Amino acid sequence: MSQENLQAVVSQVRRDIVRMVHAVNSGHPGGSLGCVEYLVSLYFKHMNHNAADFKMDGVGEDVFFLSNGHISPVMYSVLARAGYFEVSELATFRKLNTRLQGHPTTHEGLEGIRIASGSLGQGLSVALGAAAAKKLNGDDSIVFTLHGDGELQEGQIWEAAMYASAKKVDNLIAAVDVNEKQIDGSTDDVLAMGSLRAKFEAFGWDVIDVAQGNDLDAIDTAITEAKGKLGNGKPVCLLLRTEMGNGVDFMMGTHKWHGVAPNDEQLASALAQNEETLGDY
Amino acid sequence: MKKYTDSGSKDTRSGFGAGLEELGKTNENVVALCADLTGSLKMNAFADQNPDRFYQVGIAEANMMGIAAGLTIGGKIPFTGTFANFSTGRVYDQIRQSIAYSGKNVKICASHAGLTLGEDGATHQILEDIGLMKMLPHMVVINPCDYNQTKAATIAIAEYDGPVYLRFGRPKVANFTPADAKFEIGKGDVLTEGTDVTIIATGHLVWEALQAAEALEAAGVSAEVINMATIKPLDEKAILASVAKTGCVVTAEEHNRFGGLGESVAQTLVTNHPVPQEFVAVNDSFGESGTPAQLMEKYGLNAEAIVAAAQKVIARK
């Protein structure tokens, strides 16, 4: 898909996110908006996957794990827009009996979801297992993950990071959404983590720093570069320097929209900033 | 009363190791993970014979549970191995979210459960693991009684599609069940038939229950002993059929009385056929250092304790 067409998907996904969260007055728009470009780039350009015929084992396909499950709105929108399920189902987000739970789950049989996430820090380990299974199966496809930067405060992430390099897991691209914000404030204020690049490099990873983490061209270049590094005995980390709330001006530059829904007026403003390109659900 | 003999004491963890070794030869999808306790878990044979299917994860149990969950996504059947304490309490949230809630086909295999771990003391003697695991929706919980049954259970759970907690122990104990018996998940085995009291035991306490039944017989009391290796799903039919004859129950387990087998049995009884019940279990306490036999005596988890509980519950009928 061309970069222009990807940008059109991005605009629609942003609309989906704010509409979903607004409709139930709950959910996490800030982090969701910050990761739209990365997920759109993965699902509409870089991943080899079969949305029309979802199979849990993902054999022969690239698979993606969302470790920071609270940004489920962007995950659900991208999956629906990519064809995993009907976009009309986005209207059920967070409502009773929905498959689109507040945090993603396999429990409801939602196509495109292979693990529950929400309790932070677990997705990288799961990805290591999926990557190991691919090697056993002689399957040379790729395992992708996405993590929040605040999530890196969980110890299990570093258990997994250590394992990945020690065991030469080189069919894995782990991305970190470095928006430098978490619920209680900036990551530096809450629990400063120092240089993430230095940390991942010290843990034996190849690190690609993406200064423009909301720029489709920069993401495209970075993913292409990351793919080129695979198969060389090292896991690859993408540090996506993103803007929380990207694409909705009043949500940008603050942590305050981590888990807050817009009101009617704010929704109208957010939608006015993002063109309806593919038809609202 | 049917009598059982010890064919030669063995540790249940070695039964697990033998079962896993056999699975390595018969099921190519079985993989194993261990957190730096390969020898203690008796996983060496599998590891040596299947180096590509064995994952040494180091002292990082949370990561191990996540990797196991991920391996299922590629169609593998992972068996994780570490001590019971580190298989449950330490990684409860990882099991809850990445395995149980996600419905992953992981076999959580836990050795050194309970007091019989011995001298290492309470930090390692988990007495709460059955409760932790049985509370997770759809988790199967199995605590086999001897080497042969542990081996059979290990082989059986590979055929079952879903998360399983398999609990076993460190010490050598009587090996008395048949070597060729197939393990059936969710089925209690009536070992001795009786009419005065039902003794429902799990794990290491099953042999003690048989010893208790012999002592009771000598005292003129007819005890029915049920080996309840599967705690969840519980064989309610076997329990209710037995209490219909005996009218009272003693449960026996190497676990806290809160959250264990006894509690599950009590729930079955009060909702179906209320009868008196006594609990042979640890009474809301941590363990301590000592030899397994000393600890089982001090905490009231042996044949003598079961006899006393049987006499007490019969008097309550």
Please sum up the structure shown:
Chain A has 281 residues and is α/β, with parallel strands linked by helices.
Sketch the major β-sheet of chain B.
Answer: 7 strands, mixed
Could you tell me the radius of gyration of chain A in angstroms? 17 Å
CATH topology of the largest domain in chain B: Rossmann fold
What distance separates the N and C termini of chain A? 22 Å
Q: Give the % helix of chain B.
A: 25-40%
Number of domains of chain B: 2
CATH architecture of the largest domain in chain B: 3-Layer(aba) Sandwich
Spatial extent as radius of gyration of chain B: 19 Å
Determine and state the CATH class of chain A: Alpha Beta
Poorly predicted ranges of chain B = none
Outline of chain A = globular
Oligomer state equals: heterodimer
Number of helical elements of chain B: 12
- Briefly, what CATH class of the largest domain in chain B? Alpha Beta
SS strand fraction of chain B: 15-25%
Describe this structure in words.
Chain A has 281 residues and is an alpha/beta fold. Chain A has a single domain, classed as Rossmann fold, CATH 3.40.50. Helices cover 40% and strands 11% of the residues of chain A. Chain A contains 10 helices and 7 strands. A 5-stranded parallel beta sheet of chain A has the order 1-2-3-7-6, with helices on both faces. Chain A has a two-stranded antiparallel sheet with strand order 4-5. In chain A, a hairpin with a 2-residue loop joins strand 4 and strand 5. The two termini of chain A are 22 Å apart. Chain B is α/β, with parallel strands linked by helices. Chain B has 2 domains: 10-173, Thiamin diphosphate (ThDP)-binding fold, Pyr/PP domains (Rossmann fold, 3-Layer(aba) Sandwich), CATH 3.40.50.970; 189-315, 3-Layer(aba) Sandwich (Rossmann fold). In chain B, strand 10 (197-201), helix 8 (205-218) and strand 11 form a beta-alpha-beta unit. In chain B, helix 3 runs parallel beside helix 5 (92-101) and helix 8 (205-218) packs across helix 12 (303-315). The longest helix of chain B has 15 residues, at 12-26. The interface between A and B is large, with 39 and 32 residues.
